[in-house]
């Protein structure tokens, strides 16, 4: 539900006078502008330890920059880092960065944020530190199930003097053919990355709400439609212009699919991926990757000038080369004395206006219906809210009597509170869960500060799905779930498996959202004999199915027992024998299937340390939030079932019917 807000300007003389003074205040704020240098650096280190000085990269500028934003990807490729977000390499690379900063200035670390192997460091000259405020960090995982952090982004937002700046370090989906997945990752990051504000009455800030946005990282866009030898020949001739015309990111930006409004400087350096580690030689492995400009730096905002954009070939630690950009950014600086004087005058006028003007709005529509909502499908409606009063309105969606939240879990408002200024937009999204038992009915209460309440009625209907239905219900179904009346479903295992046990990166590389939707509809309608989509989309659908179960395969009531006996294989198996029959059957078939995958580990590169934590966390879920100790016990419990014993051999893997 997108709320578009229009502000009506009163014609009264007093209000016009106030607007004029507000304009004067804006002029005071922006009249003084200082130019500051920002060093942006990105480096995919391929899980390596720092083996060489970073000075040729970080101290490559003639004069020391005012700011350093240093981004890393693949800081740690170990399974522990991937699954528990722990890594000893964080302090090692932090120290290497600190030693590599420009020697002619003193720097202070403002903030660090890391998601698995994606890390962003923010350093500033000590003399500027006092003028930095409102520092917030956030992260978004876009890996499997849209959550795992092997791919995704971290971000730092802050205010420097009177300019709001957001810096994003992202690692998008890999592989040449997956450019649509990269586009999807970018859009998911923009949608899901939200920063809380110091003033809790204000809505969260999204990335694009900042004056300046700096985006860097391993964006993973590749060179398309050229053979590897042709690409290398163009590089040898330094014909980067021809090569750039085949760059996927350029093509997607030209089509305005991603990074709309962003700028990237001219690329006059050779591709930064992929090299043999420790050398300047192109990839000589069996895969012989086509060289590509995976590592990129872009910006969005006014008064930004790029002074250099380059790679640093002397560093050989990784199969990528680091990239840097030096930007000169105009920062708005407040004239404190003039600001204070003008502000006090405006406050006096506002006090007079508050006594004369009561806020009010007009809603274009007060009833909305979401029809045929599917699992993990967003629907949106739009209501226009017109401010027909004489003053700006502060609004907030407030809880109804005796309710903890302003809306039910399947509904969200963004922003949930804020000011009704011209052009302001908010969104209330449809559910991401699916259970035919829950009614889509709710009432949103829009409250105006010093004004009255407005009621918005929301109704809708779910299309039943096997995703989010219980195992016991699914086992009783005789026909596709969407062909059955809701009443029948309320009164009463889809088989999802990769097409080939030899496919690489199963359960680690995410699939495409569009393919998942086809798989979901296929399972819910029984319309196809075989599942559509790639191996990765089908395997991710399996994980999503398990994650959506209202009661996990190992029911919540067994959770404490499983943790207690996690180190004893025979006791673990005894617990499984006690599960309800349909839960036990699903558990046995899943473990048999995973054992079959492990037989082909030489092809698919899967091992127990990869599969155990991923599936353990889905099959054996805690009713409350898990700590790291519990996660390790859950993993230990499930590992017993990935190694075949004589008792397992009665369970033969087969494709479920």
Question: Could you explain how this protein is built, in words?
Answer:
The protein is an alpha+beta fold and 657 residues long. It has 19 helices and 23 strands. The strands form 5 sheets. A 6-stranded mixed β-sheet has the order 4-5-3-2-14-13, sandwiched between helices. A 5-stranded mixed β-sheet has the order 15-17-1-21-19, with no helix packed on it. Strands 6-7-8-11-12 form a 5-stranded mixed β-sheet, with helices on one face. Residues 1-34 form the signal peptide.
Total helical segments: 19
Helix percentage: 25-40%
- Residue windows where pLDDT falls under 50 for at least 5 positions: 1-14, 430-437, 493-499, 648-657
Major sheet strand order: 4-5-3-2-14-13
Biggest sheet record: 6 strands, mixed
Task: Give the percentage of residues in beta strands.
Answer: 15-25%
General form: globular
Distance between the termini: 41 Å
Please report the total strand number as a whole number.
Answer: 23
Calculate the mean pLDDT score and round it: 84
Structural class: alpha+beta
Q: Radius of gyration over alpha carbons? A: 28 Å
Key descriptive features of the protein:
single chain; 6-stranded mixed sheet; 5-stranded mixed sheet; 23 strands; disordered N terminus
């Amino acid at each position: 539900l997108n709320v578009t807000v229009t502000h009506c300007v009163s014609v009264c003389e007093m209000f016009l006078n106030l607007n004029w003074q507000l304009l004067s205040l804006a002029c005071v704020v922006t009249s003084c502008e200082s130019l500051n240098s920002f060093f942006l650096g990105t480096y995919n280190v391929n899980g390596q330890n720092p083996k060489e000085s970073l000075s040729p990269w970080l101290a490559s500028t003639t004069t020391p920059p005012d700011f350093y934003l240093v981004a890393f990807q693949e800081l740690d490729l170990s399974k522990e880092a991937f699954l528990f977000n722990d890594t000893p390499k964080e302090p090692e690379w932090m120290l290497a960065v600190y030693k590599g900063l420009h020697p002619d200035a003193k720097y202070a670390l403002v903030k660090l944020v890391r998601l698995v192997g994606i890390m962003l460091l923010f350093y500033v000259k000590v003399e500027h530190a006092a003028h930095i405020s409102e520092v917030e960090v956030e992260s978004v995982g876009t890996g499997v199930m849209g959550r795992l952090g092997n791919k995704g982004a971290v971000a730092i937002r802050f205010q420097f003097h009177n300019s709001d700046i957001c810096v994003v370090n992202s690692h998008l989906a890999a592989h040449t053919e997956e450019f649509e997945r990269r586009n999807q990752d970018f859009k998911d990051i923009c949608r899901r990355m939200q920063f809380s504000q110091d003033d809790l009455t204000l809505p969260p800030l999204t990335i694009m709400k900042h004056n300046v946005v700096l985006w860097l990282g391993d964006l993973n866009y590749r060179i398309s439609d050229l053979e590897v030898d042709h690409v290398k020949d163009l590089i040898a001739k330094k014909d980067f212009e021809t090569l750039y015309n085949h760059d996927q990111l350029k093509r997607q930006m030209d089509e305005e699919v991603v990074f709309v409004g962003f700028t990237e400087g001219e690329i006059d350096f050779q591709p930064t991926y992929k090299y043999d580690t420790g050398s300047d030689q192109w990839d000589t492995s069996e895969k012989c990757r086509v060289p590509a400009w995976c590592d990129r730096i872009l910006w969005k905002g006014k008064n930004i000038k790029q002074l250099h954009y380059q790679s640093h070939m002397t560093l050989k630690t990784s199969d990528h080369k680091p990239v840097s950009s030096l930007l000169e950014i105009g920062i708005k600086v407040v004239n404190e004395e003039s600001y204070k004087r003008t502000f006090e005058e405006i406050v006096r006028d506002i006090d007079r206006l508050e006594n004369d003007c009561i806020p009010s709005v007009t809603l274009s529509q007060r009833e909305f219906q979401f029809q045929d909502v599917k699992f993990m499908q967003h629907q949106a409606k739009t209501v226009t809210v017109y401010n027909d009063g004489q003053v700006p309105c502060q609004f907030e969606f407030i809880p109804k009597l005796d309710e903890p939240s302003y809306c039910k879990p399947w509904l969200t408002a963004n922003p949930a509170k804020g000011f009704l200024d011209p052009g302001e937009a908010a969104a209330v999204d449809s559910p991401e869960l699916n259970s035919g038992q829950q009614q889509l009915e709710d009432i949103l209460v829009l409250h105006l500060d010093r004004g009255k309440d407005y009621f918005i009625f929301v109704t809708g209907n779910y299309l039943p799905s096997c995703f989010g239905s219980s195992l016991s219900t699914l086992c009783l179904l005789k026909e596709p779930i969407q062909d059955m009346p809701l009443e029948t479903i309320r009164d009463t295992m889809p088989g999802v498996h990769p097409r080939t046990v030899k496919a690489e990166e199963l359960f680690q590389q995410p699939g495409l959202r569009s393919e998942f939707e086809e798989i979901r509809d296929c399972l819910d309608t029984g319309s196809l004999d075989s599942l559509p989509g790639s191996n990765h989309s089908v395997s991710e659908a399996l994980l999503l199915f398990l994650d959506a179960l209202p009661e996990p395969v190992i029911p919540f009531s067994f959770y404490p027992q499983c943790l207690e006996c996690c180190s004893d294989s025979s006791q673990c198996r005894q617990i499984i024998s006690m599960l309800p029959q349909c839960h036990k059957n699903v558990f046995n078939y899943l473990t048999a299937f995973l054992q079959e995958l492990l037989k082909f580990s030489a092809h698919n590169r899967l091992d127990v340390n990869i599969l155990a934590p991923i599936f353990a966390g889905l099959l054996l879920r805690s009713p409350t939030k898990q700590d790291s100790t519990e996660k390790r016990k859950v993993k230990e419990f499930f590992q017993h079932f990935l190694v075949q014993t004589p008792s397992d051999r009665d369970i033969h893997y087969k494709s479920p019917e």
